[in-house]
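Practice problem 4.
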């Protein structure tokens, strides 16, 4: 019996890292965690019993206290989330009472995912709140689209025919917002985009961008449908390219490119080579993966 128990413990110890890594990309923020793969914020609240109360009421009081503590912790966590390369969700909340009201309302609707009654009488409660939906709608920019895709030789692209925009003619604001550039089969069958950002200490955010080496936006709010950004988030995050490739967001034939550096004060924007920037926009002529937020970043 002891031998079998030891074999189980050894096997579990070997498997544990796989179980943890299979949970997606999780970032600790403040008093909670953000699972950037599932776009969910989780926090724990702890409540202690009031020993002055009758015994039957102590547990109920401890549960209420734990839920209030969890509410504070999950709100603190959400405030600490990076919104983009320069600001956090807290910055957006401070700047707008409307945003503050919407975010706090979403947090009050948290979901209890686990409750633990301790032998000491304390109660621990785990709660979750999605970053997508109400919170994303509150903090993401109100205006999306209007970006211009890159032609193979640079410049804007006609969204209808996929050819470079004629020289000397004014470029409408909607050029590139729904189309792309023909690039010799690069876009054939592309279902999404994976950017391998490992090695650059990139950090996750709700509204990150992909830039080329000249600072031009390759992916971001200029090329995204706001509806999709609110519903599923602008980018999904993983810790492994193979797992990212199996994610429903980008499966089954994603394009994979390697980042060349991180950018911005919060280090949430990623820079790709000029050649890869053109490949990405070239693929968009035959697919709408940018508009539909079918993008994943692989981080350390």
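Answer key:
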């Amino acid at each position: 019996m002891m031998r079998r128990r030891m074999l189980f413990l050894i096997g579990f110890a070997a498997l544990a890292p796989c179980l943890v890594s299979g949970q997606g990309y999780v970032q600790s923020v403040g008093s909670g965690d953000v699972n950037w793969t599932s776009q969910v914020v989780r926090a724990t609240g702890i409540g202690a019993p009031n020993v002055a109360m009758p015994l039957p009421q102590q547990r109920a009081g401890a549960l209420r206290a734990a839920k209030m503590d969890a509410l504070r912790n999950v709100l603190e966590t959400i405030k600490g989330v990076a919104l983009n390369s320069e600001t956090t969700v807290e910055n957006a909340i401070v700047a707008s009472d409307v945003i503050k009201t919407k975010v706090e309302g979403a947090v009050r609707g948290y979901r209890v995912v686990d409750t633990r009654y301790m032998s000491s009488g304390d109660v621990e409660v785990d709660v979750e709140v999605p970053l997508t939906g109400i919170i994303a709608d509150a903090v993401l920019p109100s205006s999306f689209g209007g970006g211009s895709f890159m032609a193979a030789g640079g410049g804007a692209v006609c969204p209808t025919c996929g050819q470079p925009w004629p020289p000397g003619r004014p470029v409408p604001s909607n050029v590139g917002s729904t189309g792309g550039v023909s690039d010799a089969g690069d876009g054939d069958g592309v279902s999404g985009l994976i950017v391998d950002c490992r090695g650059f200490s990139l950090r996750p955010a709700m509204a990150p961008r992909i830039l080329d080496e000249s600072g031009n936006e390759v992916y971001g709010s200029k090329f995204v449908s706001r509806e999709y950004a609110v519903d599923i988030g602008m980018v999904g995050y993983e810790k492994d390219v193979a797992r990212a490739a199996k994610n429903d967001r980008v499966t089954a034939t994603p394009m994979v490119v390697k980042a060349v550096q991180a950018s911005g004060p919060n280090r949430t924007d990623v820079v790709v080579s000029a050649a890869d920037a053109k490949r990405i926009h070239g693929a968009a002529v035959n697919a709408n993966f940018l508009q539909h937020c079918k993008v994943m970043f692989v981080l350390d």
